[in-house]
Amino acid sequence: MPGKRIAVIGAGVSGLGAIKICLEEGLEPTCFEGTNDIGGLWRYQETTSGRASIYKSATSNTLKEMTTYHDYPSPDYFPNYLHNSRIMEYLRRYAQHFDLTKHIRFLSKVDSMRKRSDFSCTDILVETTGKQESYVFDGIMVCSSLYTGPILPLQNFPGINRFKGQYIHSCEYRSPEKFQGKKIIVVGIGNSGADLAIELSHVASQVYLSTRRGAWIWNRVWDNGMPMDTVLFTHFKTILNKFYPTFLINRWAENKLNARFNHDVYGLLPKHRLLTHQATCGDDLPNHIISGRVLIKSDVREFTETSAIFGDGTEEDVDVVIFATGYTSSFPFLENNATVLDSQHSMFKFVFPPQLEKPTLAFIGILQPVGATIPTSELQRLNKLPSVSGMMADIRQKRKKFEKEFLNNPRDTCRVQYVEYMDEIASEIGAKPNLPSIFLWDPKLAVEIFFGPCTPYQYRLAILTQRERIIKPLRTRTLICDQPPSSVPFWLKSNRLLIHRLFQVLLRVF
User: Fold this and answer.
1) Which of 218-248 are b and which e, b meaning 16 or more Cβ less than 10 Å from the residue's Cβ?
2) Residue 110: enclosing H or E segment and its boundaries?
3) CA–CA separation, 167 and 150 (whole Å)
4) Of 76, 98, 79, nearest to 24 (Cα)?
5) Where in the cell does this protein reside (predicted)?
6) CA 350/CA 215 separation, integer angstroms
7) How far is CA 110 from CA 124, 188, 464, in A?
């Protein structure tokens, strides 16, 4: 008996994982991809299309051991943070290994989808090389990314229309060569804004980085030179966060970041606390600020023909303005159908719209984890859905928590904590590691899962080679050393003080 027919929209990192999951479940997936290749946002193209895209030098902010599918780790010799070309190489290997490409129809854009009156199936209209074709599917998986069209809020910048220089959105930026000798303002201090300011400062006459509210700056290299993810994204830290008040966690983390460089002195200190808004990854930013290559400025009040006037009254001559002001999330093929998805994009577990008669529509990867997207989107499936009222109650509870913990900002509406969300979904599908049980038959493995980084294969394969895989690409020079290497994992060493403090807290409680 043939399996149910499933349409997968988009062949990016979420779409590839969705195709494979469908095949594992005995379903028949057909993936529609609007471009001529896989990779989605991670595929670099020389030309721009007016949609979300990456620049030539873009590098992942998440550790390679976490930026993988659960049953296909990246090669151990890959660097810990991957350039976009390496991510594409990994995705091609993954697609080839599981023979996914034959299920993808390239240059096929989904124009519309409409549920039949009896909710038995969905009609989809697809445009392929100028021709429209109609298909019928039993279910739909939308994997078209959280980032679609650019946000270019020109109405917030008086005078931009009379500005005689060039202005673009960051999605149009590719490489720095053509900006040689220019005076440039980068508006916005998200990850893209920081990256572009740093890169352009090597060729520009001067780069100004304009920020309205400031930002907390993370760096990939953490204590003892280890990747940030290995220390922060662990089950131990997640449990610790539940015992410590939020203001103490904020204080600890902010002191940690200020110890590297004082955010106030560098003009970056935000009014918000660290955990209330997405931080920015900018390893080299303080080095470029201290050398004067990048100057931090307040928000732009208005533009003249040749200059920008900032909120503090200062004025600077400018040749180019780059708006790193983010992206919208839209699904035009849904035709703004409020019965499918409301204005707040309410979804149960960020996957299922709660008001559907039957759960035949799922959104995969339409979220913003504080961590890697690949493993979170790969886990996004549920064995059984609660009632509509139960789903709405869960949505309202999460929304209330968001309003309490985060700023009222579009960037945070789909934000989830990496380990918490992975554990939440893994519990629903029976894939969460049972630590007490594992400790009884393999204590070493249990310690690794609890204190080590929360890698995707913990939920399926739970291996003990994480430390070696992380260190291998760093050891490109062989050293002769009389002292034998420590057998204690570095994340266990780095957490000794926190473990001691946790036990003190527990003793007071009990």
Assistant:
1) bebebeeebbbbbbbbbbbbbebbeebeeee
2) strand 108-115
3) 14
4) 98
5) Endoplasmic reticulum membrane
6) 27
7) 7, 32, 43
Residue 400 CB neighbour total at 10 angstroms: 10
- State how far the Cα of 324 lies from the Cα of 197, in Å rounded to an integer: 10
Partners of 435 in beta bridges: none
Whether residue 410 contacts residue 147, with contact meaning beta carbons closer than 8 Å, is answered with: no
Amino acid at 220: R
Say how far residue 329 (Cα) sits from the centre of its chain: 14
Q: Are 30 and 8 in contact (CB under 8 A)?
A: yes
The Cα angle at residue 339 between residues 388 and 351, in degrees rounded to 5: 55
pTM of the predicted structure, to 2 decimals: 0.91
Least confident of 91-95, 227-231, 345-349: 345-349
Which three-class secondary structure state does DSSP give residue 188?
coil
Of all residues in the chain, what percent carry a pLDDT higher than 90?
Answer: 68
Of 103, 100, 75, nearest to 90 by C-alpha is 75
Distance of alpha carbon 8 from alpha carbon 144, whole angstroms: 9
Pairing between strand 122-128 and 104-105? Answer: unpaired
Q: Give me the sheet containing 122-128, strands edge to edge.
A: 108-115, 122-128, 131-137
**At 321, which helix (H) or strand (E)?**
strand 320-323
- Lowest average pLDDT, out of 27-31, 34-38, 439-443, goes to 439-443
Q: Average of pLDDT values for 286-305?
A: 97
Alpha carbon 262 to chain centroid, angstroms: 26
